[in-house]
Amino acid sequence: MGWYDADIDRVIITEEELRAKTAELAKQVAADYASVDGLLLVCVLKGAVMFMADFSRELGKVGGPPAELEFMAVSSYGQGTTSSGVVRILKDLDRDIAGKHVIVVEDIVDSGLTLSWLLKYLESRSAKSVDVVALFRKPEAIKVPVPVKYVGFDIPTEFVVGYGLDYSERYREVPYVGILKPEVYQR
């Protein structure tokens, strides 16, 4: 029993389901990129860290191409919990991506505004290809169509935490994904 269990209304994706889906996504990416000599995985901080670690390990296990890891931190400002689509880079890539096959490793696609901006930004840096693997997507929340080639789970528009997803920097370490009780974030 974790300190967080009392704050979770219900579990929607178990630890086992997360592991299985991560392995499935890694197999898909490995098959699609079997003919390339390497991938550059770009983790969108902070939420995608758990997924990035597990996904990159699985990619190696299933015989995917060698993968280098990069990290970016971006912030979009809006009212409350909604994205404005105005993006600020808090941490940029540490290397040139020109000519590389880039896979953006994203935790969740919500409105699509930030991811849409990020894809244009990466494409402007002359990557050979840019695709997205997102573990979660909230279909009802999408405002901008974004080409997400690999999606793990479609989830409800409720407030979810766990496996990297947070509320006020808490709950990222929760090993499953759950719906946060409203009284926790409405205090």
Automatic annotation (TrEMBL):
<keyword id="KW-0547">Nucleotide-binding</keyword>
<dbReference type="GO" id="GO:0005829">
    <property type="term" value="C:cytosol"/>
</dbReference>
<dbReference type="GO" id="GO:0004422">
    <property type="term" value="F:hypoxanthine phosphoribosyltransferase activity"/>
</dbReference>
<dbReference type="InterPro" id="IPR005904">
    <property type="entry name" value="Hxn_phspho_trans"/>
</dbReference>
<protein>
    <recommendedName>
        <fullName>Hypoxanthine phosphoribosyltransferase</fullName>
        <ecNumber>2.4.2.8</ecNumber>
    </recommendedName>
</protein>
<dbReference type="InterPro" id="IPR029057">
    <property type="entry name" value="PRTase-like"/>
</dbReference>
<dbReference type="GO" id="GO:0000166">
    <property type="term" value="F:nucleotide binding"/>
</dbReference>
<dbReference type="GO" id="GO:0006178">
    <property type="term" value="P:guanine salvage"/>
</dbReference>
<comment type="pathway">
    <text>Purine metabolism; IMP biosynthesis via salvage pathway; IMP from hypoxanthine: step 1/1.</text>
</comment>
<keyword id="KW-0660">Purine salvage</keyword>
<keyword id="KW-0328">Glycosyltransferase</keyword>
<dbReference type="GO" id="GO:0046100">
    <property type="term" value="P:hypoxanthine metabolic process"/>
</dbReference>
<comment type="similarity">
    <text>Belongs to the purine/pyrimidine phosphoribosyltransferase family.</text>
</comment>
<keyword id="KW-0460">Magnesium</keyword>
<dbReference type="Pfam" id="PF00156">
    <property type="entry name" value="Pribosyltran"/>
</dbReference>
<comment type="pathway">
    <text>Purine metabolism; GMP biosynthesis via salvage pathway; GMP from guanine: step 1/1.</text>
</comment>
<dbReference type="GO" id="GO:0032264">
    <property type="term" value="P:IMP salvage"/>
</dbReference>
<dbReference type="GO" id="GO:0032263">
    <property type="term" value="P:GMP salvage"/>
</dbReference>
<keyword id="KW-0808">Transferase</keyword>
<dbReference type="GO" id="GO:0000287">
    <property type="term" value="F:magnesium ion binding"/>
</dbReference>
<keyword id="KW-0963">Cytoplasm</keyword>
<dbReference type="GO" id="GO:0006166">
    <property type="term" value="P:purine ribonucleoside salvage"/>
</dbReference>
<dbReference type="InterPro" id="IPR000836">
    <property type="entry name" value="PRTase_dom"/>
</dbReference>
<feature type="domain" description="Phosphoribosyltransferase">
    <location>
        <begin position="19"/>
        <end position="167"/>
    </location>
</feature>
<dbReference type="GO" id="GO:0052657">
    <property type="term" value="F:guanine phosphoribosyltransferase activity"/>
</dbReference>
<dbReference type="InterPro" id="IPR050408">
    <property type="entry name" value="HGPRT"/>
</dbReference>
<keyword id="KW-0479">Metal-binding</keyword>
